[in-house]
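Minimal example, chain plus zinc ion.
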Amino acid sequence: MIDVALLGIIRRWYIRDRISIREIARRLDISRNTVRRYIRSDVSEPAYPARRSPSSLDDFTARLSAWLSAEAVKSWKQRRTLKQMFLDLRELGYEGSYDRVAAFSRQWRVGQMERVKSASKSTQTRLRLEEEFGKPSVARTKKVTDISNYLKKNIDSLLTGDPAQLLAHIKHFEKKFNWFHVYALANPTAKSAAYDKEKAAVVRAVYNAFNYDKFSRPRSTWGAYKLVMTYGKRICPYCNLNHINFHSRPRGIPKKMKVLEMRPPLDHYYPRFSYPYLGISLYNLIPCCHQCNSSIKLQKDPLTEGLPHPFEFPAKAFSFTVQDIGKFDKPVKAEEIKISFGCKPGPVQEHVTFFALPERYNWYVHEIADMHSKYLSYTSAPKELSAALKRDMVLPFKPGTGAERTLGFCMEDIFNSLEKQFSK
Ligand SMILES: [Zn+2]
């Protein structure tokens, strides 16, 4: 039997996102043959999936897995909560308890992380470390052996550790091998007086062992493409303004056939020139937009700039409104709109300033003006109709899904402040 909701997801992933059959099967935890059957099926998707009969979670696990994949990485401000997913499942006909949904989600997360960890190939990196540190150019002193042993011993945590673990490694290096970061960043040439043959060889060995250039090329095994796909994000986590489009080669398509392969830049949150041992760490590679990566973040060090890790933003870290909202009861020109940015002082404020978010958001006053004029045009309708029109027609996306839309949080917040000000 073909499940139309599932069919929609599978077709979207396969046709639009060019995700491989194998990957779809993995995400949905169904067999590859089932995926193929869905792709080949000639059932067409209804615009609105039919309401299902009362059922248990088993009938919804595929859908829930897909949702969890989409929410897998904490977003900028707040991702869709499990509670919301539970309510959406109820809407689709699920009649079970929240606890079952929560239990499924826990199980799913453990499985997901295991897959990523096993895919990240720590053994391969360990072998490369052996090879690089075994080269004749690398001195056999205690200082050098200590670094090599530390890296080998902590390889798993270096590659897949969470942001706190990565920071702990940096602190360890600063304490035990205090010359390393300084020398790596300065990277003096052989002619320079600061050049030190032994140090240069060690830095190069570490840099080569955690080889990002190799990692970043399109390939079917673990690498930059797989990483971006695992995150499943659509929007830049630094600014929430730009898309981070991703297209990969579907499995089974021969190499000589030209297909669109494109991924967003991966920003080294901790720059790899200073911290070469974090060159291919899962949580050090942030899929982000070109503006954030190439015009703003560059090789800047978040520790010097006081920037928080983008996946560790506190919920409701900042909010948006428009200046002088009182005058928005009548049409205003885009030029008169000024988007104002509210955020807690501290690291989040640093982030906002560093990424020039207030200036960048104010580029979008035209979109806000469009939204406002729609809002106004619905206010004169009878009360109930007006409420429904505003709810469904003003925002260009479903309320609550702002995290997955460009400008999403900003539009949601401004919409809410308009509501607060004018709907009596
Ligand atoms: Zn960005």
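The chain has a mean pLDDT of 86. The first helix runs from residue 4 to 16.
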